């Protein structure tokens, strides 16, 4: 049996306002309190805790990153300094060895020159003495020859 | 007056029939409470299971629960404003969740399988009592919000920006609950009727589009109700900058 009971119906109808209204309101208010303690507060706490955690973690990570960057720059400086120092050391060592080489070369050349000079002097002296010897010998022989020839005559 | 019996071909369709429970000398609509207990029970069970083990790294249902919370928080924050939304988040959220589960419960639960002596089960929000109750709660809420935050300065709102607005603002206090309740009631009832009529005329396939549309409308109506409630509360707590 269909009956369209509309406004003004004594029993029933679409717009039948009765004690359902306040009871439903009370029920919804109760539901609000239940959901607040069951859902909104705990979930809010978890979500806000996480948001806080994320924010602090980000801040910490940023701090660490800055520290790492500082350290990296520091190390890079040190590395650069070390490179410069090595370069200088190498240069010095090269200069040193160069100087040593030159020194040794010079002394060796001087030695060689000196001994050559000495040798030449010795040779000269010997030649001198040999020549004078030869001269005296030749004079002697000449005298002898002259004497002989003069004697034979 | 009395009832207007019309003999129509869809004789199974019952509109305006209620299962009356007697409480002292008060009458209440039993079917509304029965279906509201079912949907509230489902909602509470879901939230209870979802919030049982909350972790910092969300997994499983917790993701859904937090998405829901975040959605409601954004809604409340946008409408009410950063300063006052925390106090009203549970109220706005409860309105949204209750209306949403009521509407979807009315559309998705096969209530027709349960026969009542009189009336039939359906969405609790398809009963004018429920929607008027919700709308009046919203009215109380925004009055309370305004008065508790600003004291009697709240009534300055009625003469802002000019005293000419006074009658309109007073009328608004009546039209707000009226429009809230009738919008929700009308949409949900109309949706149920359309689906019922279509299902009665052509029981296969044809009602499906209307059913999907009904689900869509139901969700939108819950959102509209919660958004407007938040908007009214936000209006009441809003501080004019002189």
Strand content of chain A: under 5%
* DSSP summary, beta strand count of chain A: 1
| Shape label of chain B | globular
- Which percent bin holds the helix content of chain B? 55-70%
Strand order across the largest sheet of chain B: 2-3
Q: What proportion of the residues of chain A is helical, as a percent range?
A: over 70%
So what's the overall shape of chain A? Answer: rod-shaped
What Rg of chain A, in angstroms, do the CA atoms define? 62 Å
Q: Estimate the strand proportion of chain B.
A: under 5%
If you had to describe this structure to a student in words, what would you say it looks like?
The complex is a heterodimer of chains A (about 150) and B (about 240). Chain A has a domain at about 30-120. Chain A is an all-alpha fold and about 150 residues long. Helices cover about 85% and strands about 0% of the residues of chain A. Chain B has one domain. Chain B has helices at about 30-50, 60-80, 85-110, 130-150, 165-200, 205-235, and strands at about 5, 20-25, 25-30. In chain B, a hairpin with a 2-residue loop joins β2 and β3 (about 25-30). In chain B, α4 packs antiparallel against α5. Chain B is globular, with a radius of gyration of 21 Å. Chain B starts with a strand and ends in a 5-residue tail after the last helix. The relative contact order of chain B is 0.14. At the A-B interface, β1 and α1 of A face β1, β3, α1, α2 and α3 of B.
């Amino acid at each position: 049996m269909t009956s369209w009971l509309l406004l003004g119906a004594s029993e029933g109808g679409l717009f039948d306002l009765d004690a359902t209204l306040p009871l439903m309101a009370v029920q919804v208010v109760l539901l609000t309190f239940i959901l607040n303690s069951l859902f909104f507060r705990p979930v809010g706490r978890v979500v806000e805790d996480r948001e806080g955690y994320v924010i602090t973690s980000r801040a910490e990570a940023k701090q660490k990153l800055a520290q790492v960057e500082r350290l990296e720059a520091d190390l890079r400086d040190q590395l650069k300094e070390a490179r410069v120092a090595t370069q200088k050391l190498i240069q010095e060592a090269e200069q040193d060895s160069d100087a040593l080489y030159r020194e040794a070369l010079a002394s060796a050349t001087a030695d060689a020159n000196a001994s050559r000079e000495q040798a030449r002097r010795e040779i000269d002296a010997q030649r001198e003495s040999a020549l004078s010897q030869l001269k005296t010998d030749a004079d002697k022989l000449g005298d002898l020859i002259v004497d002989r020839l003069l004697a034979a005559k | 007056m009395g009832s207007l019996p019309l003999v129509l071909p869809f004789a199974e369709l019952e509109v305006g029939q209620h299962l009356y429970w007697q409480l002292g000398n008060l009458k209440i609509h039993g079917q509304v409470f029965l279906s509201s207990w079912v949907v509230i029970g489902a909602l509470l069970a879901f939230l209870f299971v979802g919030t049982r083990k909350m972790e910092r790294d969300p997994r499983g249902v917790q993701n859904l629960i937090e998405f829901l919370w975040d959605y409601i928080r954004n809604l409340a924050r946008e409408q009410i404003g950063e300063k006052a939304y925390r106090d009203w988040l549970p109220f706005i959220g409860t309105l949204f969740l209750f209306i949403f589960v009521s509407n979807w419960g009315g559309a998705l639960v096969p209530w027709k399988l349960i026969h009542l002596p009189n009336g039939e089960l359906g969405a609790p929000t398809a009963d004018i009592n429920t929607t008027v109750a919700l709308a009046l709660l919203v009215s109380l809420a925004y009055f309370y919000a305004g008065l508790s935050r600003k004291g009697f300065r709240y009534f300055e709102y009625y003469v802002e920006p000019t005293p000419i607005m006074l009658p309109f603002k007073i009328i608004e206090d009546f039209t707000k609950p009226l429009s809230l309740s009738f919008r929700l009631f009308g949409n949900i009832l109309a949706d149920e009727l359309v689906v019922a009529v279509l299902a009665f005329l052509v029981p296969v396939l044809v009602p499906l589009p209307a059913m999907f549309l009904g689900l869509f409308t139901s969700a939108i109506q819950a959102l509209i109700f919660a958004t407007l409630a938040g908007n009214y509360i936000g209006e009441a707590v809003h501080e004019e900058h002189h």
